[in-house]
């Protein structure tokens, strides 16, 4: 959990501050929404194409600009993948230009894909993609909060996006959900097939639950089984006061690295001559 917060704070502020237009966001399908040949999910700064057969494509955008009546999104990474989107009546049209096509030759002969809005997911696809797509949007909100360089808003945003129950805290299941969704996003970004996505999230479920328990237990100072904003921010929201005690003299820090005997070693060292 601490590493996630640090990673979010270190990533540069995205250039796509305005995001993809609201009217283009949401879930779209090719063919019948009950049995689509592919899904397209659009957030403020991400486009995820999820074929029923074949590799997923997740493009997380670092820049957006108008391109005629299209919106041109430019992805992060060395290849800087591009996606073009525009409204088409009640539907959506997209193009995904080849990486070798120069900007001044866009769109070239790139095929136009047609999508219709889908509001209710079929159970199988909901089980496969629902949690990951929800966490994808949550990650964007976390990035927006965490990339300002201060810790307190980052921690508050983490609780806000992960708090499913609405109690203002994070339980084991809520932390595990964030970890499972992140595993889904990583697999989708790597071009996983539906079977590989199912494997990544399925195999990751037990690991996510174990890691969530470790994260909660390691920061749950009041022992209620949940993480509050205050607990997540303990020793992190602001620099600790430079207090200490002038009495005593330095002991050997190496003695404190003894795993389970950490507290015992600390007491023995500070009490010894």
UniProtKB/TrEMBL annotation:
Keywords: Signal. Residues 1-17 form the signal peptide. This is EF-hand domain-containing protein.
